[in-house]
Amino acid sequence: MLKELNQQIQEETYSSYIYLAMAAWLEENGYKGMATWMRVQAREEKIHADIFYNFIMERGEHVKLEAIDAPPDSWESPLELFKAALAHEEHITGRINHMVGVALDVKDHATYQMLQWFVEEQVEEEANVGEAVQQLTIVGKDGRGVLMIDREMSARVYAVPTSAPWYPKSGQPAA
Ligand SMILES: [Fe+2]
Ligand SMILES: [Fe+2]
After folding, report:
1. Ligand 2 mean position to 89 CA, how many Å?
2. Closest C-alpha to 92, from 3, 10, 2
3. What's the 53 CA to ligand 1 centre distance in angstroms?
4. Whole-angstrom Cα distance, residue 88 to residue 103?
5. Is the model's pLDDT at 175 over the cut of 50?
6. Which ligand is nearest to the CA of 118?
7. Is there a contact between 15 and 52 (Cβ–Cβ < 8 Å)?
8. For a Cys-Cys bond, which of 31, 60, 90, 103 suits 26, CB 3.0-4.6 Å?
9. In 3D, which of 158, 7, 157, 3 has the Cα closest to residue 92?
10. Distance, CA 109 to ligand 2 centroid (Å)?
């Protein structure tokens, strides 16, 4: 279980890293609103990694950080980029579900309970990214439509996940 929790620090940190790469590509290509949205997303993922870190500490276990791969640095279009983000979230959902299975197998009820927050969070994550994919698909190559979506997505602001378990315990600085 501990190995899985440590691996998840890596997975969530990589999520943060790939979304930062996506934010950079979006900003470089003139989609500033979507870039803002992605930077908020990247920040949320960093918090997810912190939650797993805090949880391991709280249990008196050992944090072992793994290597983080370099993410891609270019995508064909905003639509292809958000499709890649959705595929990534689906991968993370698979990871969370896998960990829930392990927690049940080894009867680790505390971890099982902590993971429930992530089970819910993943439903929201897939819905949010899925909505962007859907809207970008609708407008297709219509530049004005894409810029309207870009403007709408610029409104996203970072909010501290106060409902999250193990945040901001264990000396986690407030965002
Ligand atoms: Fe996450
Ligand atoms: Fe996520």
Report:
1. 6
2. 10
3. 13
4. 23
5. no
6. 1
7. no
8. 31
9. 7
10. 23
CB 127 within 8 A of CB 85: no
What would the two tokens of residue 57 be? 């500490």
Tens of pLDDT, residue by residue over 159-172, are 777 777 766 554 55
Q: Which two tokens stand for residue 111?
A: 């971890």
| pTM of this prediction exceeds 0.90 | yes
- Structure tokens that stand for 154 in this block: 């610029």
Sign for the pseudo-dihedral over CA of 104, 110, 116, 118:
negative
Residue 62 identity (one-letter amino acid): H
The three-class DSSP label of residue 137 is helix
The total number of residues written for the chain in this structure: 175
DSSP state of 47: H
CA distance 17 to 99: 22
What phi, psi does 124 have (nearest 5°)?
-65, -45
Q: How many CB atoms lie within 10 A of CB 152?
A: 14
Rounded to whole angstroms, how far apart are CA atoms 71 and 148?
A: 28
Going by C-beta distance under 8 Å and a sequence separation of 6 or more, which residues neighbour residue 14? Answer: 68, 69, 71
CA angle, 65 then 53 then 129, to 5°: 95
CA 110 to ligand 1 center in whole angstroms: 19
Question: What are the structure tokens assigned to 4, written together?
Answer: 């899985």
Q: Which fold has domain 2-153?
A: Ferritin (1.20.1260)
Using an 8 Å Cβ cutoff, are 160 and 174 in contact?
A: yes
